[in-house]
Amino acid sequence: MIPITLPDFAYILGAPTITADVRTYPEDFQVVETLSFEPTGTGEHVFLQIRKRDTNTDWLARQLAQFANVKPHEVSYAGLKDRHAVTTQWFSIQLAGKIAPDWQTLNSDTIQVVQQTRHSRKLRRGALRDNQFILCLRNVTGNHATLEQRLTYLAQHGVPNYFGEQRFGHNHNNLQAAEQILVAQAIIKDRHQRSLYLSAARSFLFNRILSERVTQGSWNQAINGDVMQLAGSHSVFPITNIDDEIQRRLTCFDIHPAAPLWGKGENLASLDALALMQTILSAHQGWCEGLIREGLELEWRSLRLIVENLQWTWLSETSLQLAFHLPAGAYATTVLRELVKTTEFTRHVM
């Protein structure tokens, strides 16, 4: 089997020359997730907001199931969070007709129950409004002014909405597994693992399209035949002409150009956008056909990611603290890769 390697996806300002250490300590990478809805306070599903340190999300979900004496599938969460970090996230546990245990006895050096409530439905994947990040870069080497120029540009224009490198697994093993499923038609019985591998393949194809748009300078601009996505929504619409209204809405971040997460269904792109897409995906025809065969529905993802409330503070001559908000499904590592050169991204895999 030939190893699959990731290309160095294009940068909007060129590859950074400044280096820094990321996640030297778990506290250097802090995330707080915000739900997209307010739990009602009643219902058979207990909602726990938990702050965890250096703890895997899946592992904690299994511990919650064991603690509450329920089956693993009765525990859910809105999104995976990095292990080597301090993250505050929500879990739901279905306790229909059961007495809830004393959740505070879960507290330890690495786990703290922040609050609890109830809701009528389980917590589903992606049910987040956004994630708030506070990151500390250590041993920053390079010109401060250059780094701050990049930060100012990102705050004003956003970044390419790449899937983070952790999506592809350690040594890109998720892509190797996807190749076996999509081309060799290997059988993987574990549904969660299979879904993870197929998602990695779709993410890779999306990144390839986005990288070409970055190279062409159209990752944040419309091209003929583009598909536009409404900001903060999954709603999309095709365009054939780029008129003043489309330009105005792009400028004020009301809409963003989008690319597909490949699967079955109508491809709304046409003209130049479709031609570019077909050129890139022609090298991965086996994957495209396999994703359709697997029954995945074609979806759309914005090419542009707006970095909300980006702020930075120099804690010392070589330590920089960043704070910003990103919508659900976006990666802090896609912001960092435009700023500093580091190998920390693949050191700890979810």
Task: Give a quick precis of the structure.
The chain is an alpha+beta fold.
How would you summarize the topology of this molecule?
Elements: E1 19-22, E2 29-35, E3 45-53, H1 57-68, E4 75-77, E5 86-94, E6 111-119, E7 128-141, H2 144-157, E8 159-160, H3 173-182, H4 191-216, E9 227-230, E10 236-238, H5 244-251, E11 255-261, H6 271-281, H7 285-293, E12 299-302, E13 304-305, E14 308-316, E15 319-327, H8 332-336
Parallel strand pairs: 2-5
Antiparallel strand pairs: 1-7, 2-7, 3-5, 3-6, 4-5, 7-15, 8-13, 9-10, 9-11, 11-12, 14-15
General description of the model:
With about 350 residues, the protein is α+β, with helices and mostly antiparallel strands. Among the domains are: about 35-125, 2-Layer Sandwich (Pseudouridine synthase), CATH 3.30.2350; about 160-305, TruD, insertion domain (Pseudouridine synthase, 2-Layer Sandwich), CATH 3.30.2340. Helix content is about 25%, strand content about 25%. It contains 8 helices and 15 strands. Strands 1, 2, 3, 4, 5, 6, 7, 14 and 15 form a 9-stranded mixed sheet that branches. Helix 3 crosses helix 7 (about 285-295). The radius of gyration is 21 Å and the shape is globular. Residues about 345-350 have low confidence and may be disordered.
CATH architecture of the domain at 159-305: 2-Layer Sandwich
- Output the helix-strand order: EEEHEEEEHEHHEEHEHHEEEEH
Separation, N- and C-terminal Cα atoms = 25 Å
CATH topology of the domain at 159-305: Pseudouridine synthase
Structural class: alpha+beta
**Which runs of at least 5 residues are low in confidence (pLDDT < 50)?**
345-350
CATH class of the domain at 159-305: Alpha Beta
Average of per-residue pLDDT values: 93
**Radius of gyration over C-alpha positions, nearest whole angstrom:** 21 Å
* Count of alpha/pi helices: 8
Estimated share of beta-strand residues? 25-35%
Silhouette? globular
The main β sheet shows up as: 9 strands, mixed
Count all strands and give the number.
15
CATH superfamily of the domain at 159-305, by name, is TruD, insertion domain
- What share of residues is helical? 25-40%
Enzyme class: isomerase
EC number: 5.4.99.27
Family: Belongs to the pseudouridine synthase TruD family.
Function: Responsible for synthesis of pseudouridine from uracil-13 in transfer RNAs.
